[in-house]
Amino acid sequence: MHHNSFVRLEARLKPFAEHISPLTITDSEQIGRPWGEAATDGMVAYGNADVWFSPAARAFGKQLYGAPKLAWFQSSAAGLENPFLQKIGELAEAYTSSHVQSEAIAEWVLWAAFDWFGSGAKRRELQAKKEWEKVHFREISATRWLIYGFGHIGEAVGRRLRGLGAHVTGVRRSSQVSPFADHMLHPDHVSADDIALADAILLCAPHTPETENMADAEFFASMKEGSLFMNVGRGALVDEAALLSALDKGKPAHATLDVTREEPLPEDSPIWSHPGVTLTAHTSALTSESRARNDELFLENLANFVNGDALKNLVQRDAFEAQSV
Amino acid sequence: MHHNSFVRLEARLKPFAEHISPLTITDSEQIGRPWGEAATDGMVAYGNADVWFSPAARAFGKQLYGAPKLAWFQSSAAGLENPFLQKIGELAEAYTSSHVQSEAIAEWVLWAAFDWFGSGAKRRELQAKKEWEKVHFREISATRWLIYGFGHIGEAVGRRLRGLGAHVTGVRRSSQVSPFADHMLHPDHVSADDIALADAILLCAPHTPETENMADAEFFASMKEGSLFMNVGRGALVDEAALLSALDKGKPAHATLDVTREEPLPEDSPIWSHPGVTLTAHTSALTSESRARNDELFLENLANFVNGDALKNLVQRDAFEAQSV
Question: What total number of domains does chain B contain?
Answer without folding.
Answer: 2
